[in-house]
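Exercise 7.
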Amino acid sequence: MAVTTDKPQHACIECGHWSLKDTDRSMARLGFARCLKKKLPGHTTSADASACERFAAADAGAVQTRKEWIAKQEGRRT
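Solution. The predicted structure, written as tokens, is:
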């Protein structure tokens, strides 16, 4: 039997705690950012990682800006 949940699935990039600004630039360029809810300042999560139970939706404009910035960085790596 499949388990279902009423909660929509979110990614870390959509969370207000996921912070590119507080992340080492080399990690941010790879699509990782610091979670402000993690105790270790060097702990980063992928933009695509499933959001945790502490998820707090970020402003839609901020999410779009993040996605565009990461896409631009990916274009530089090819």
